[in-house]
Amino acid sequence: MAKSKKKSSKKKSPYDTAFFIRIGILVPLLLLIAGGFAYDRLVLVPHGKKKVAEIIATKNPVDGTAETLIQETAGKSPAQKQTIGNFDVHEYRFGRILPNLAPHICTVVFCDGNLVESYAGTMPEDEIALLKTKRVTATESDE
Fold it and tell me: What global pTM score does this model have?
Protein backbone atom coordinates (compact mmCIF):
# COMPACT_ATOMS: atom_id res chain seq x y z
CA MET A 1 0.00 0.00 0.00
CA ALA A 2 2.92 2.36 0.61
CA LYS A 3 4.14 1.92 -2.97
CA SER A 4 0.84 2.95 -4.53
CA LYS A 5 0.70 6.06 -2.35
CA LYS A 6 4.14 7.24 -3.61
CA LYS A 7 3.18 6.80 -7.25
CA SER A 8 -0.01 8.77 -6.91
CA SER A 9 1.67 11.71 -5.11
CA LYS A 10 4.12 12.31 -8.00
CA LYS A 11 2.40 14.38 -10.70
CA LYS A 12 3.60 14.65 -14.27
CA SER A 13 4.50 18.16 -15.46
CA PRO A 14 1.99 19.69 -17.88
CA TYR A 15 4.94 21.02 -19.94
CA ASP A 16 6.75 18.70 -22.27
CA THR A 17 10.23 19.15 -23.74
CA ALA A 18 8.88 20.91 -26.87
CA PHE A 19 7.65 23.77 -24.66
CA PHE A 20 11.14 24.35 -23.27
CA ILE A 21 12.69 24.17 -26.74
CA ARG A 22 10.24 26.82 -28.01
CA ILE A 23 10.92 29.05 -25.02
CA GLY A 24 14.66 28.53 -25.49
CA ILE A 25 14.36 29.83 -29.05
CA LEU A 26 11.77 32.57 -28.61
CA VAL A 27 13.22 34.33 -25.54
CA PRO A 28 16.67 34.98 -27.12
CA LEU A 29 14.94 36.06 -30.33
CA LEU A 30 12.81 38.53 -28.37
CA LEU A 31 15.91 39.85 -26.59
CA LEU A 32 17.72 40.27 -29.92
CA ILE A 33 14.85 42.26 -31.44
CA ALA A 34 14.42 44.40 -28.32
CA GLY A 35 18.17 45.05 -28.27
CA GLY A 36 18.07 46.11 -31.93
CA PHE A 37 15.29 48.59 -31.30
CA ALA A 38 17.05 49.90 -28.19
CA TYR A 39 20.29 50.35 -30.18
CA ASP A 40 18.34 52.19 -32.87
CA ARG A 41 16.64 54.56 -30.41
CA LEU A 42 19.55 55.13 -28.06
CA VAL A 43 22.51 55.18 -30.47
CA LEU A 44 21.59 55.56 -34.14
CA VAL A 45 18.89 58.23 -33.85
CA PRO A 46 21.01 60.66 -31.76
CA HIS A 47 24.05 59.96 -33.96
CA GLY A 48 22.11 60.74 -37.15
CA LYS A 49 20.62 63.93 -35.69
CA LYS A 50 24.05 65.06 -34.46
CA LYS A 51 25.73 64.45 -37.83
CA VAL A 52 22.99 66.31 -39.74
CA ALA A 53 23.30 69.25 -37.34
CA GLU A 54 27.11 69.26 -37.73
CA ILE A 55 26.86 69.27 -41.52
CA ILE A 56 24.33 72.11 -41.52
CA ALA A 57 26.45 74.14 -39.08
CA THR A 58 29.60 73.74 -41.20
CA LYS A 59 30.81 77.05 -42.60
CA ASN A 60 31.97 77.41 -46.18
CA PRO A 61 35.75 77.55 -46.50
CA VAL A 62 36.68 79.99 -49.27
CA ASP A 63 39.45 77.80 -50.69
CA GLY A 64 37.10 75.43 -52.58
CA THR A 65 37.55 72.43 -50.26
CA ALA A 66 33.99 72.35 -48.96
CA GLU A 67 33.23 68.94 -50.48
CA THR A 68 36.07 67.24 -48.63
CA LEU A 69 35.29 69.16 -45.43
CA ILE A 70 31.64 68.05 -45.51
CA GLN A 71 32.67 64.48 -46.30
CA GLU A 72 35.05 64.48 -43.31
CA THR A 73 32.34 65.97 -41.09
CA ALA A 74 29.85 63.30 -42.18
CA GLY A 75 32.41 60.55 -41.78
CA LYS A 76 31.26 58.89 -44.98
CA SER A 77 30.90 59.44 -48.69
CA PRO A 78 27.57 60.69 -50.05
CA ALA A 79 24.89 58.08 -50.65
CA GLN A 80 23.70 59.87 -53.77
CA LYS A 81 25.31 62.43 -56.07
CA GLN A 82 23.45 64.48 -58.64
CA THR A 83 24.66 67.18 -61.01
CA ILE A 84 22.29 69.97 -61.98
CA GLY A 85 24.05 72.40 -64.26
CA ASN A 86 27.06 73.82 -62.40
CA PHE A 87 25.75 72.52 -59.07
CA ASP A 88 26.62 69.22 -57.41
CA VAL A 89 23.97 67.92 -55.03
CA HIS A 90 25.19 65.36 -52.47
CA GLU A 91 22.82 63.45 -50.23
CA TYR A 92 24.14 61.93 -47.00
CA ARG A 93 22.06 59.22 -45.31
CA PHE A 94 22.52 58.07 -41.75
CA GLY A 95 20.72 54.75 -41.60
CA ARG A 96 18.65 52.99 -39.02
CA ILE A 97 18.60 49.39 -37.81
CA LEU A 98 15.66 48.28 -39.97
CA PRO A 99 15.29 49.17 -43.64
CA ASN A 100 11.70 50.35 -43.24
CA LEU A 101 12.67 53.04 -40.70
CA ALA A 102 13.36 56.44 -42.27
CA PRO A 103 17.04 57.42 -42.21
CA HIS A 104 18.33 60.84 -41.26
CA ILE A 105 19.11 62.67 -44.50
CA CYS A 106 21.17 65.76 -45.17
CA THR A 107 21.39 67.29 -48.65
CA VAL A 108 24.27 69.61 -49.54
CA VAL A 109 24.61 71.75 -52.69
CA PHE A 110 28.05 72.67 -54.02
CA CYS A 111 29.16 74.91 -56.86
CA ASP A 112 32.79 74.77 -58.01
CA GLY A 113 33.82 73.09 -54.74
CA ASN A 114 32.16 75.74 -52.58
CA LEU A 115 29.22 75.15 -50.27
CA VAL A 116 26.04 76.80 -51.53
CA GLU A 117 23.30 75.42 -49.28
CA SER A 118 22.59 72.51 -46.93
CA TYR A 119 19.24 71.02 -46.00
CA ALA A 120 18.06 68.72 -43.23
CA GLY A 121 16.23 66.11 -45.26
CA THR A 122 15.90 65.88 -49.00
CA MET A 123 16.08 68.93 -51.20
CA PRO A 124 12.65 70.44 -51.94
CA GLU A 125 11.40 70.20 -55.52
CA ASP A 126 11.06 73.98 -55.86
CA GLU A 127 14.75 74.36 -54.93
CA ILE A 128 15.72 71.80 -57.57
CA ALA A 129 13.67 73.73 -60.14
CA LEU A 130 15.43 76.92 -59.02
CA LEU A 131 18.83 75.30 -59.60
CA LYS A 132 17.73 74.27 -63.09
CA THR A 133 16.71 77.83 -63.92
CA LYS A 134 19.99 79.18 -62.54
CA ARG A 135 21.78 76.82 -64.89
CA VAL A 136 19.88 78.23 -67.86
CA THR A 137 20.68 81.82 -66.91
CA ALA A 138 24.32 80.95 -66.28
CA THR A 139 24.70 79.41 -69.75
CA GLU A 140 22.91 82.35 -71.38
CA SER A 141 25.23 84.84 -69.67
CA ASP A 142 28.31 82.93 -70.92
CA GLU A 143 27.30 83.42 -74.59
Answer: 0.72
